[in-house]
Amino acid sequence: MARAKRWPRSKGEDRRGHMADMLSIHVRPPEVEDRQFPGHWEGDLIKGALNQSAVGTLVERNTRLLILVKLPHPNPATAAHVLQAFTDKLNAVAKPMRKTLTYDRGKEMSHHQQLSANTGIAVYFCDPHSPWQRGSNENTNGLIRQFLPKGTDLSVYSQEQLDGIADLMNGRPRKTLDWCTPHEVYSGWLAKFDDPTQILQ
Question: Could you give all domains of the chain from N- to C-terminal order, each with its CATH number?
Protein backbone atom coordinates (compact mmCIF):
# COMPACT_ATOMS: atom_id res chain seq x y z
CA MET A 1 0.00 0.00 0.00
CA ALA A 2 1.50 3.31 -1.06
CA ARG A 3 2.09 5.89 1.60
CA ALA A 4 0.51 9.30 1.22
CA LYS A 5 3.03 11.88 0.09
CA ARG A 6 4.07 14.31 2.85
CA TRP A 7 5.00 17.80 1.83
CA PRO A 8 7.95 19.30 3.75
CA ARG A 9 7.33 22.25 6.00
CA SER A 10 8.97 25.45 4.91
CA LYS A 11 11.97 26.50 6.95
CA GLY A 12 11.40 29.25 9.46
CA GLU A 13 7.63 28.94 9.31
CA ASP A 14 5.82 30.61 12.18
CA ARG A 15 3.33 27.97 13.34
CA ARG A 16 1.61 30.18 15.91
CA GLY A 17 -0.85 31.43 13.35
CA HIS A 18 -1.26 34.58 11.34
CA MET A 19 -2.81 37.74 12.73
CA ALA A 20 -4.75 40.07 10.52
CA ASP A 21 -3.31 43.36 9.27
CA MET A 22 0.05 43.11 11.02
CA LEU A 23 2.50 45.95 10.42
CA SER A 24 5.98 44.58 9.82
CA ILE A 25 9.00 45.93 11.67
CA HIS A 26 10.40 46.65 8.21
CA VAL A 27 7.90 49.48 7.67
CA ARG A 28 8.51 50.96 11.11
CA PRO A 29 9.64 54.64 11.00
CA PRO A 30 13.46 55.01 10.86
CA GLU A 31 13.43 57.17 14.00
CA VAL A 32 12.53 54.08 16.03
CA GLU A 33 15.71 52.31 15.01
CA ASP A 34 18.11 55.16 15.79
CA ARG A 35 16.71 55.77 19.31
CA GLN A 36 17.13 59.55 19.05
CA PHE A 37 13.68 60.29 20.42
CA PRO A 38 11.53 58.54 23.04
CA GLY A 39 8.05 57.09 22.82
CA HIS A 40 8.96 53.83 21.12
CA TRP A 41 8.37 50.69 23.18
CA GLU A 42 9.16 46.99 22.95
CA GLY A 43 6.82 44.49 24.57
CA ASP A 44 6.69 40.86 25.64
CA LEU A 45 5.38 38.46 28.28
CA ILE A 46 7.50 36.57 30.78
CA LYS A 47 5.93 33.31 31.88
CA GLY A 48 5.70 31.67 35.29
CA ALA A 49 5.68 28.01 36.31
CA LEU A 50 4.08 25.70 33.72
CA ASN A 51 3.10 28.80 31.69
CA GLN A 52 0.13 29.28 34.02
CA SER A 53 1.01 32.84 35.02
CA ALA A 54 2.60 35.75 33.20
CA VAL A 55 3.68 39.37 33.56
CA GLY A 56 3.77 41.88 30.73
CA THR A 57 7.00 43.79 30.11
CA LEU A 58 7.27 47.10 28.27
CA VAL A 59 10.63 48.79 27.67
CA GLU A 60 11.08 52.25 26.13
CA ARG A 61 13.92 52.13 23.58
CA ASN A 62 15.51 55.54 24.15
CA THR A 63 15.41 55.73 27.95
CA ARG A 64 15.28 51.97 28.73
CA LEU A 65 12.42 52.72 31.14
CA LEU A 66 10.63 49.55 32.23
CA ILE A 67 6.92 49.05 32.90
CA LEU A 68 5.68 45.77 34.37
CA VAL A 69 2.07 44.78 33.75
CA LYS A 70 -0.02 42.57 36.06
CA LEU A 71 -2.11 40.06 34.10
CA PRO A 72 -5.22 38.20 35.33
CA HIS A 73 -5.02 34.67 36.66
CA PRO A 74 -5.75 32.10 35.33
CA ASN A 75 -5.23 32.31 31.56
CA PRO A 76 -3.13 35.48 31.69
CA ALA A 77 -1.99 35.38 28.07
CA THR A 78 -5.39 35.61 26.40
CA ALA A 79 -5.63 38.40 23.86
CA ALA A 80 -8.49 40.03 25.78
CA HIS A 81 -6.54 40.09 29.06
CA VAL A 82 -3.41 41.47 27.42
CA LEU A 83 -5.43 44.11 25.56
CA GLN A 84 -7.05 45.40 28.76
CA ALA A 85 -3.92 45.30 30.91
CA PHE A 86 -1.65 46.90 28.30
CA THR A 87 -4.26 49.54 27.50
CA ASP A 88 -4.52 50.57 31.14
CA LYS A 89 -0.75 50.79 31.63
CA LEU A 90 0.06 52.52 28.36
CA ASN A 91 -2.69 55.11 28.78
CA ALA A 92 -1.01 56.08 32.06
CA VAL A 93 2.07 57.08 30.02
CA ALA A 94 2.32 60.73 28.93
CA LYS A 95 0.94 61.09 25.39
CA PRO A 96 4.23 62.32 23.81
CA MET A 97 5.78 59.07 25.04
CA ARG A 98 3.19 56.89 23.26
CA LYS A 99 4.20 56.39 19.62
CA THR A 100 5.00 52.81 18.70
CA LEU A 101 5.16 49.33 20.20
CA THR A 102 7.26 46.51 18.70
CA TYR A 103 6.16 42.99 19.63
CA ASP A 104 6.79 39.41 18.58
CA ARG A 105 4.10 37.33 16.90
CA GLY A 106 2.53 35.88 20.02
CA LYS A 107 -1.22 35.41 19.70
CA GLU A 108 -1.72 37.46 22.87
CA MET A 109 -1.31 40.53 20.65
CA SER A 110 -4.04 39.52 18.20
CA HIS A 111 -6.14 42.51 19.34
CA HIS A 112 -3.36 44.87 18.28
CA GLN A 113 -5.66 47.06 16.20
CA GLN A 114 -7.88 47.69 19.22
CA LEU A 115 -4.79 48.41 21.33
CA SER A 116 -3.77 51.04 18.78
CA ALA A 117 -7.25 52.53 18.84
CA ASN A 118 -7.25 52.59 22.65
CA THR A 119 -3.81 54.15 23.11
CA GLY A 120 -2.80 55.88 19.87
CA ILE A 121 0.24 53.58 19.61
CA ALA A 122 1.12 51.94 16.30
CA VAL A 123 1.99 48.25 16.83
CA TYR A 124 4.72 46.66 14.69
CA PHE A 125 5.63 42.98 14.60
CA CYS A 126 9.05 41.35 14.46
CA ASP A 127 9.99 38.67 11.95
CA PRO A 128 9.32 35.10 13.12
CA HIS A 129 11.92 33.72 15.53
CA SER A 130 13.84 37.03 15.69
CA PRO A 131 14.05 38.08 19.37
CA TRP A 132 17.05 40.31 18.65
CA GLN A 133 14.68 42.69 16.88
CA ARG A 134 13.42 43.54 20.39
CA GLY A 135 16.88 43.61 21.91
CA SER A 136 16.19 46.10 24.70
CA ASN A 137 13.19 44.07 25.85
CA GLU A 138 15.03 40.75 25.68
CA ASN A 139 17.97 42.08 27.70
CA THR A 140 15.66 43.63 30.28
CA ASN A 141 13.66 40.42 30.62
CA GLY A 142 16.88 38.70 31.66
CA LEU A 143 17.44 41.29 34.38
CA ILE A 144 13.83 40.99 35.57
CA ARG A 145 14.44 37.33 36.35
CA GLN A 146 16.55 38.47 39.32
CA PHE A 147 13.24 39.50 40.88
CA LEU A 148 10.82 37.12 39.14
CA PRO A 149 12.73 33.81 38.83
CA LYS A 150 11.82 31.19 36.27
CA GLY A 151 9.62 28.40 37.57
CA THR A 152 7.77 30.56 40.09
CA ASP A 153 4.10 31.54 40.27
CA LEU A 154 3.96 35.11 38.95
CA SER A 155 0.27 35.50 39.79
CA VAL A 156 1.13 36.14 43.46
CA TYR A 157 2.67 39.54 42.65
CA SER A 158 0.37 42.55 42.90
CA GLN A 159 0.61 45.49 40.52
CA GLU A 160 2.06 47.53 43.40
CA GLN A 161 4.82 44.94 43.88
CA LEU A 162 5.54 44.89 40.16
CA ASP A 163 5.71 48.70 40.13
CA GLY A 164 8.22 48.51 42.97
CA ILE A 165 10.41 46.10 41.00
CA ALA A 166 10.23 48.36 37.96
CA ASP A 167 11.20 51.35 40.13
CA LEU A 168 14.27 49.50 41.38
CA MET A 169 15.37 48.68 37.85
CA ASN A 170 14.59 52.18 36.57
CA GLY A 171 16.78 53.59 39.35
CA ARG A 172 19.89 51.68 38.26
CA PRO A 173 22.53 53.72 36.38
CA ARG A 174 23.18 52.35 32.89
CA LYS A 175 26.40 52.51 30.92
CA THR A 176 24.39 52.89 27.71
CA LEU A 177 22.78 56.03 29.24
CA ASP A 178 26.16 57.55 30.24
CA TRP A 179 25.57 56.23 33.75
CA CYS A 180 22.27 58.04 34.15
CA THR A 181 19.23 56.07 35.26
CA PRO A 182 16.21 55.36 33.06
CA HIS A 183 14.15 57.47 35.48
CA GLU A 184 16.48 60.45 35.02
CA VAL A 185 16.53 60.24 31.22
CA TYR A 186 12.77 59.73 31.02
CA SER A 187 12.11 62.66 33.38
CA GLY A 188 14.43 64.81 31.29
CA TRP A 189 12.37 64.12 28.19
CA LEU A 190 9.12 64.90 30.01
CA ALA A 191 10.58 68.28 31.05
CA LYS A 192 11.47 68.99 27.43
CA PHE A 193 7.97 68.14 26.28
CA ASP A 194 6.61 70.59 28.85
CA ASP A 195 8.83 73.21 27.19
CA PRO A 196 9.06 72.09 23.52
CA THR A 197 11.64 74.78 22.69
CA GLN A 198 14.21 72.75 24.65
CA ILE A 199 13.93 69.84 22.21
CA LEU A 200 15.54 72.00 19.50
CA GLN A 201 18.43 73.11 21.67
Answer: 23-127+140-159+166-192 (3.30.420.10)
